[in-house]
Every structure is written in C-alpha cells, then in structure tokens.
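INFO  loader      accepted 1 record
INFO  loader      residues=361
INFO  predictor   begin
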Amino acid sequence: MVNRMHEITLNLHMHTRYSDGSGTHREIARAALRAGLDAVIVTDHNVLVKGVEGYYREKNRRVLLLVGEEIHDQDRKPQKNHLLVFGTDRELAPLADDPQGLINAVREAEGLAFLAHPVDPAAPAFGESDISWVDRDVQGYTGIELWNAFSEFKTVLKSKLHALFYAYLPHLIARGPLPETLRLWDELLGDGQRVVAVGGSDAHANRYRMGPLSRVIFPYEFHFSTVNTHLLLPRPLSGDLATDRRLVLDALRAGRAFIGYDLPAPTRGFRFTAQGRERRVGPGEEIAAEGGVTLQVKLPDSSASRVECRLLKDGEIVRSWKRQTVCTHITTEPGVYRVEVYRRYWGRKRGWIFSNPIYLT
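INFO  predictor   done
INFO  writer      dumping tokens
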C-alpha cells in the first residue's frame, strides 16, 4: 500500500482579511498556484468563513483551498492556547474559554484539532507576548503544529536591527522546529499518545514600516515555498471537492505525512517505511516488531553530500547517515520511530524533513 501512495504538498495555517492577514482567499489560491502547491488550508482567527472552499484554477493548473479556523480565547490576557481546527463545518469559537471542552466538541463534530505553535516565545523588542499552549493536561486532540514558520521568525527578533536584516533576507531564518517543541512531541509520544505532527506557515503577509522602509512580512508565495506538510494519499486528488476534502482530512488524521522545508531543495519524494514479515507500512501506522523489521528512508535525489539523516527511537538517535539517499536499519525492538533530515543551506545546517512516526509494537 505504501508504494502506491500519492504525495501532495499542503500548506496550512494562514490568515486573510477576515482576521489579521492582508489577502483574500482568491489571492492566497493564486499564490499557492505560483508556489506549486496542491492544497492549502486557511485558518482565520475565531471565524469560520463559508462559501470559499473549492478548486481554484489558472490555465491548466489547480489548487484545492479548504477552510479551517484558529480558535483562541480573545478575553484571556495574554492570549494562550491557540487551536487549529479542521473539518468541523460549524463555528466552535464560542467554546474557546474551555480548551478541553473545545477539543471535545471538535471530536464530536468529527473534526481535527491541532495545538497551534505550542511553544511560541515572546518578542519583547516588538511588544509580542508569549502565546504558547499552556494547558498541557488536555487530551483527545489530533496533533501539534511541530514547526510554525512565523513563530520561528519571532525567535530571531532580538532588536529592530535584526528585524530589518531578516525582512530583506528571509531565507536565513529557518533552522527547524523549536527544540522545546520537539521535546514536547517526544514526551507525548513516549506517554503512548498518537500525536500527529504538522508544519504550518502562519502566513499573514502584512506590510510593516520602519522609518522610510516598507516591507511585506512575508508574502504568501514566499511562505508557501518554505515549511509545508506533505501528505500521502491512497489515490490522487480527483478534482471533486467533497472527495478530495475527505482524502486530505483522513491523511492528516492518520499522520500519513511529513514536514518538509522546501526552500533549500524540494522534499517531494521522501519516504519512510517499515517492512515486516508480511507487509510494509508508512508514517502513522504500526507493525509488529517480532521477527524483525527493516526501516528504510529514501531521500529526494538532490545534493546527497549536504544531507544528514537521523533515525530516532523514543526520542533518541539510534542511527545516523551522511551523504546517503537510501538509509536502512533492521530492528526487533518495539518503539516509536521517526526520522529527521538536515542539510546545509546558506552556511548552516538546517532542518529539512521531519517524518511522522512509525509504531513498532
């Protein structure tokens, strides 16, 4: 089944004029088309926008635009506990003051709930407060936003001079998911929770001014070329909204996905599989360790000399490879296995690919 999966590139977590972004849904779709995406999920703050989902086309290309929501308690100061909600088809923002009640309502509506930017530090130089997820005892959510591109931008804003530097050189920002977020994910997985990881752009595309200088931080199209979530689907997108919406949501729910930083080089084609006695599985799936399992990583065939691949078991590195595009490890040990890939880009080792786990039972 794994070999027949069809990969699509999805960008999720972004904002329009309905909340604190600058663009329309149509402008986002056009930017996604230019960036070569297959799908986007728009998530305005505390408003579920109706009537805009569907395929947007330009010449012989198309992109699927879906609508979710980023829900948080607007009365709380400072604001915490932002939740990305997909697939509910009804407004749940009135429940924002009770995070567990909100998550329960999402499940009852057969939707998906992801903790948005679970670690999101303050940027005092710009009056930005810490908006991390703090209610760590909640249960029943689908996953977490492991890599949030805009939260990472906040971590480099030590001064207005830093902001000016990165405003004109945004390709130097990304280094990978915040270490605290990676540790949190491994802790949750270690506790036996099946927590799906996604990457979000958190794109707003707002214009900022500093004296005579003016800059959009950052255009949608730039965001769409950076941190994406790649989904593995059992069949290609058909062009039918209802069918393809279900395919996307099912893949997110199951964790058939990896996070790719596509700016240094395309991550499309990455695969992480486990071959047992009788079957082969991929991310989000489980397989018996008895009798031995061959874990295999296949990397996109590009500049292997710049790449380091790490296999982690229960949050600890068990194997690492350099300058290889096919990496294999045989084991009989149960555990939660996932992959991290790093590559050199603009003089620094940066996160490139982060897989969802395969569960060896």
